[in-house]
């Protein structure tokens, strides 16, 4: 935006060649825009770029938490990591969580959005109810559900007449984290869907109605296709966020790895290696592995999307 | 993903990363401010900074002891900070020592000292100064003192031991006919006797209450109980040179089967893991295996209860013990009046630990244990014998409270107790994990347990 306004000021004052004016534009653009992004760039460099590079370097060393006497060990950390059953175990837990959360949250968000979109009375109340949990800090949400899941005194078992050891049995512990996450974060995807629903032109529905399409047909042939892009966005964001699951799982298990390590996620394992076992070099190596995996997922999605777009053309 | 669409997520993450960074920077800033302000405000000659991990009842007792030290030693200003228990505490202490911003005095679990790079992150105690302020080796349990000595130097000054106990409700046991004439639980010397006791107790237990709470799904407690009973069987972990695993899987299977039977036979209800065991006990369950730190909790609930060391079901008496001990985090220029003040403070607290016993811990300073005041404490006087029957983790760099050993092996014990792994398979996994740990290098000095001089 700044660049365009600079352009309009510069252009009438001087008659220059096309190349010159482009150069001026670029320089002027930085002078004005650069300062606006500088605070962000500084923080970005300090807290993202630098740690990333530093982490990459540390991953080739046997650095410990005290910060001294690190030796270059080549690919030893990576070799160890690929053979480390606990790392794969933790990765499996993060993947399992992602596999459960992503479809559930997408469907649930869509249903809630359609509900809130069609309800006439008290619209604001529904929107507020569905979105409000998302505003809670993760610790609050996790603590709340820790109480709800309490086997003896918790509301869940009480209301449904169950006797389920939600937080203390390895077959339920991750499920409890998934349920908590659904309740806590569905509001964000819900909001995206709601905005998209409101963007679908009403005349499409009117035309379909005239042609005799019933409500179900209208959803199937208008609503869902029109929401395809936003669904892609919701799924992508959820996959990236879910793979990085950490805080709610950790808080619900009182900072432990859950019954028989069943809620120990990849992020938690990395943290443990670095800050409990003091193996900063090794922790850096496995976080680089995780970074590569996540980047691969994001790239694979972009590639799939491009193929589909090209195929559609 | 469309470019414009990808950004919101990324931006949010970056923002969070940046915000997190600012918070950290901010807290460092405040820490710096705090130190300066306190030093200015104090009129005392010497200021001793002291980090501990005691909150709740322990925190209250520790502060009371510090206050009485302050009254007796007006020339020394104690600036104490309480940090959160567990791994974060050790991380902070390690980083502070490495960055030469360490406090003058700290508290650690004795089992963690070996792995804490004594000599680099910890400074040794000065025996002359300790003696000057009344600390004598003969006033401590010899085994306990030995564990605090590394490479011939004392790196930890034990304040207490804290042990795993069998808490029992006298009202329920009386109904079940399980109380002796002295008002204490009948002695138990074998697994058969123990399960007979549980069977009788179950008959007298109110509906909806389990018979015993033993943290069946908690990796720390299950590990501590394992250490206790494995020691009762005379089991060992490694040879003295730390080159071979001597872990006895047959003995381990006996222990694992014993623990498992509590859950399998329904004495421990799988729904009441964790803290629910103590809640059940308060509400009428006859037994709970808990750390001695639960004494103030059950006192506050005004229960009629007793507490013994874990029953010697395998013949020999032993219950798991760890120890809170004072340490001197490494300072490049350690010495002078501040260092002497740290010695003086630690020596004082260790010798005035009567108050500390109210938290259930057994004071390490044995003359305290024979005072009339201590002998009157109940149920402390019932389990004080645990001082002479300590079951501890092996003295290696990866051991100690919430250390790597507990984190690796604890879940394996839990898998057997909860029934998701057979005791035999779990015992073999424990053995192979111990072998892996033995081959592992201590990240602090790059040496394995066999290469490390830290075993003394």
UniProtKB/TrEMBL annotation, chain A:
The keyword Cell membrane applies. The chain crosses the membrane at residues 35-53, 95-116, 128-148, 172-195, 226-246, 280-304. It comes from the Bacteria. GO terms for biological process: transmembrane transport. InterPro entries: ABC_transporter_permease, MetI-like, MetI-like_sf. It is a multi-pass membrane protein. Belongs to the binding-protein-dependent transport system permease family. One of its GO terms (cellular component) is plasma membrane. This is Sugar ABC transporter permease. Keywords: Cell membrane, Membrane, Transmembrane, Transmembrane helix, Transport. The keyword Membrane applies. It is found in: Cell membrane. Residues 91-301 form the ABC transmembrane type-1 domain.
């Amino acid at each position: 935006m700044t660049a365009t306004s600079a352009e309009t000021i510069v252009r009438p004052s001087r008659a220059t060649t096309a190349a010159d004016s482009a150069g001026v534009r670029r320089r002027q653009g930085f002078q004005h825009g650069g300062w606006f992004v500088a605070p962000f760039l500084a923080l970005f460099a300090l807290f993202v770029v630098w740690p990333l590079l530093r982490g990459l370097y540390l991953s080739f060393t046997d650095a410990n938490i005290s910060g001294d006497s690190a030796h270059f060990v080549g690919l030893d950390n990576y070799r160890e990591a690929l053979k480390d059953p606990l790392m794969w175990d933790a990765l499996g837990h993060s993947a399992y969580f992602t596999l459960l959360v992503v479809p559930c949250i997408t469907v649930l968000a869509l249903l809630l959005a359609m509900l809130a979109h069609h309800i006439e009375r008290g619209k604001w109340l529904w929107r507020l109810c569905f979105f409000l949990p998302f505003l809670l800090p993760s610790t609050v949400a996790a603590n709340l559900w820790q109480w709800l899941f309490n086997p003896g005194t918790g509301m869940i078992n009480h209301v449904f007449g169950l006797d389920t050891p939600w937080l203390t049995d390895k077959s339920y512990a991750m499920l409890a984290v998934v349920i908590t996450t659904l309740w806590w974060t569905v509001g964000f995807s819900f909001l995206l869907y709601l905005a998209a629903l409101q963007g679908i032109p009403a005349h499409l529905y009117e035309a379909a109605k005239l042609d005799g399409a019933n409500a179900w047909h209208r959803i199937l042939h208008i609503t869902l296709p029109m929401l395809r892009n936003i669904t892609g966005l919701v799924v992508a964001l959820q996959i990236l966020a879910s793979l990085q699951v950490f805080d709610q799982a950790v808080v619900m298990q009182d900072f432990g790895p859950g019954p028989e390590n069943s809620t120990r996620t990849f992020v938690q394992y990395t943290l443990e290696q670095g800050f409990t076992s003091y193996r900063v070099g090794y922790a850096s190596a496995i976080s680089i592995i995780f970074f590569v995996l996540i980047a691969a997922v994001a790239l694979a999605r972009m590639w799939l999307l491009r193929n589909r777009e090209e195929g559609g053309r | 993903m469309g470019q414009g669409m990808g950004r919101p997520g990324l931006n949010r993450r970056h923002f969070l990363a940046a915000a997190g960074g600012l918070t950290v920077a901010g807290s460092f800033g405040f820490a710096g401010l705090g130190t300066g302000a306190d030093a200015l405000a104090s009129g005392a000659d010497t200021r001793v900074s002291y980090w501990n991990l005691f909150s709740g009842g322990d925190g209250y007792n520790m502060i009371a002891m510090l206050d009485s030290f302050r009254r007796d030693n007006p020339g020394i200003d104690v600036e104490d900070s309480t940090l959160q228990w567990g791994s974060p505490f050790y991380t902070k202490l390690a980083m502070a020592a490495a960055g030469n911003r360490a406090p003058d005095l700290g508290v650690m679990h004795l089992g963690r000292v070996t792995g804490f790079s004594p000599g680099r992150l910890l400074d040794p105690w000065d025996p002359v100064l300790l003696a000057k302020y009344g600390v004598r080796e003969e006033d401590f349990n010899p085994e306990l003192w030995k564990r605090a000595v590394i490479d011939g130097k004392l790196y930890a000054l034990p304040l207490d031991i804290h042990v795993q106990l069998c808490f029992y409700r006298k009202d329920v046991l009386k109904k079940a006919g399980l109380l002796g004439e002295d008002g204490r639980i009948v002695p138990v010397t074998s697994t058969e006797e123990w399960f007979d006791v549980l069977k009788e107790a179950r008959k007298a237990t109110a509906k909806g209450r389990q018979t015993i709470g033993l943290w069946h799904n908690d990796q720390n407690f299950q590990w501590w109980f394992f250490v206790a009973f494995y020691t009762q069987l005379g089991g060992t972990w490694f040879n003295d040179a730390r080159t071979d695993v001597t872990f006895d899987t047959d003995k381990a299977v006996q222990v694992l089967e014993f623990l498992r039977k509590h859950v399998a036979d329904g004495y421990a209800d799988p729904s009441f893991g964790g803290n629910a065991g103590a809640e059940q006990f308060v509400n009428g369950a006859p037994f709970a295996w808990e750390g001695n730190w639960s004494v103030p909790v059950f006192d506050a609930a005004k229960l009629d209860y007793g507490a013994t060391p874990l029953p010697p079901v395998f013949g020999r008496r032993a219950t798991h013990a760890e120890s809170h001990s004072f340490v001197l985090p490494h300072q490049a220029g350690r010495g002078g009046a501040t260092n002497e003040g740290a010695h003086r403070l630690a020596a004082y607290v260790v010798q005035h630990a009567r108050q500390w016993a109210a938290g259930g811990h057994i004071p390490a300073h044995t003359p305290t244990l024979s005072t009339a005041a201590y002998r009157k404490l109940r149920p402390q006087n019932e389990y004080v014998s645990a001082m002479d029957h300590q079951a501890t983790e092996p003295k290696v760099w990866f051991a100690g409270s919430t250390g790597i050993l507990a984190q690796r092996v604890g879940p394996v014990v839990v898998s057997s107790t909860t029934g998701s792994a057979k005791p035999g398979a779990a015992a073999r996994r424990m053995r192979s994990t111990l072998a892996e740990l033995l081959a592992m290098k201590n990240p602090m000095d790059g040496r394995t347990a066999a290469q490390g001089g830290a075993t003394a």
